[in-house]
What does this fold into?
Amino acid sequence: MKIAVCVKQIPDPASPYQLDPTTHNLVRPTEQVLDDTDRYGVEVGLQIAGETEGTVTLVSMGPSGNLNGIRQALAMGADGAILVDDETLKGSDSLTTAKILAAAMAPESFDIVIAGTESTDGYSGVVPQQIAELLGVPALTYAKKIDVEGSTVRINRQTATGYDTIEAPTPVLVSVTAGVVEPRYPTFKGIMDAKKKPVETKTAADLGVTVTVNQRIALVVPAPSRSGGQVVIDEGTGHEKIIAMLEQAKVI
Amino acid sequence: MAWIFIEEVSGAPAVVGLEILSKTRADGATTVLYFGKGSDAAFATLGEFGATDVFHLVPSEGSTGTAAAAAAIADLVGQHNPDAILFGQTYTDRDVAGRLSTRLDRTMISNGIDVSLDGSVGVTTEIFGGSQLVTTMFEGPGPHLVLIRPKSFPAEPSGGGAPTVTAVPLPDAGHAGSARVTGSFVEETEGPKLEEAAVIVAGGRGLGSVEGFELVEKLAAPLKAATGATRAIVDAGWVPYSKQVGQTGKTVKPDVYIACGLSGAMQHLVGMKDSKLIIAINKDEEAPIFAVADLGIVGDVHQVLPKLIEALENR
Ligand SMILES: Cc1cc2nc3c(=O)[nH]c(=O)nc-3n(C[C@H](O)[C@H](O)[C@H](O)COP(=O)(O)OP(=O)(O)OC[C@H]3O[C@@H](n4cnc5c(N)ncnc54)[C@H](O)[C@@H]3O)c2cc1C
Ligand SMILES: Nc1ncnc2c1ncn2[C@@H]1O[C@H](COP(=O)(O)O)[C@@H](O)[C@H]1O
It folds into this structure.
């Protein structure tokens, strides 16, 4: 199977995010990491490729920076990457992102395209479905288990009350939840090999995608904040404080 | 004119759809795209919440139907030109909305918590764990597509009569529409439902193990509380996804939320910070959950919870 995995480089979630005061876009430092959510997609891709003697190509849009995030995914074992890095794509919406990723993938005719269910910094949660529609393929979404048999892909699709089993023939898009597999850690060899793997860089113009902006941020205000109450160190009687509060709230 | 997309869940309109309808009917947005088998009872419920017109999209047996639904809605848009289409921020709604956005070549805004439909269409979203509110205005031609988070508005019936229902046949979506449903499984959870409970006891990784979650269940019993969880322990397989609270789980607003051994990551906070009273137990004084807690106990859940459970059971 020829597999593509969508991976996003994002600012380190451990450092506080900031908005550019004039454009209201997220400030993107050069130091970026692989979105943790996408490690699951990479792992799923590697497992399927392992079973089917396939290949895994990473596809990403966003500022390349020092390529740390992409290298992390290559070090896990992916074969190569296509990166679309273009100044004009700054602050693009989900549809533009999907158009770029789909256009980057289209010429390769992948059997399976894998994405996360929502990115950590954007969390629009619709890019995978938009890609599926652009590529004209079925979407098996919110997978918490995946099996490939011949050219049929089956998943357990998480639902609000349990799960559905759904399936579709390739070519197909699958979006994976974080519970689906345990992502591997890169080995030392993997990290060394990653430095030599091909990373192809493209622009929006190369892909024939024109960027349009159809929304405008009108206002950013602090939310009415709830102030913290009292914080006490438990010295064996913390539970009594809780009981007192529950009584006050009349739930006991 | 705006339309509201409502998915059928267990034979009835999804609650998030009724919440949106309760909000938008004042602006005259009373046309519903109903996705599911449909029944007189389901349509009557839509009417009670203010729907006057329903386009009924029926997925064909065994198909997920989402690609075909997007194609059918795109056709309807061509005929009627609505200004906006509102969806819930739920799985099926996202599947249909994403495809529709591509078909119509229209941008969409996710995670809305408020929407204005007077004249131009504007959407409010929360960022940075709900600490900032962003209002975004759509520009250019509609329909503007919006996904609204559950519990953004109260669902209140307006007492309307049965709506006019028009059946809309779904087209064959070809290969894109070839995903088939072969089975449906419900992971039974006992006790009160998260969305409805007055009290919620929620647990996180600080409970240490699956067994640790029993403390949460034991505390919930005397309080007649529902149990909730962070994504970390859902992903770890301790509890089913139906218990997840947060950005990608449920949004809850109970009278009391008791957070046990969870850090209060921003993706968790957006799902529970509007609870009336928040009580948190965490051994780390710096845990972000304390910033929103009315009462914070800095302590070990394995010390505090057994004592609390015993005291409640002895009352
Ligand atoms: C796109 C995206 C969506 C997400 N959606 C959600 C969501 O919907 N819901 C959600 O919950 N998360 C969500 N997350 C994950 C979120 O970022 C956090 O990783 C998660 O909430 C952390 O769970 P936790 O608090 O159980 O674990 P941790 O953050 O590891 O916290 C454990 C806490 O337990 C405390 N502790 C440890 N031992 C003890 C003890 N013995 N006694 C008392 N306290 C103890 C620690 O001090 C710590 O604060 C999402 C993440 C992403 C990227
Ligand atoms: N800029 C991007 N580059 C690569 N993949 C992306 C990008 N944006 C989104 N995705 C993929 O789409 C998924 C959902 O993202 P989102 O719709 O932004 O929540 C992510 O988990 C990624 O797999």
User: Anything to note?
Assistant: The domain at 2-177 of chain B is CATH 3.40.50.620 (Rossmann fold). The mean pLDDT of chain B is 96.
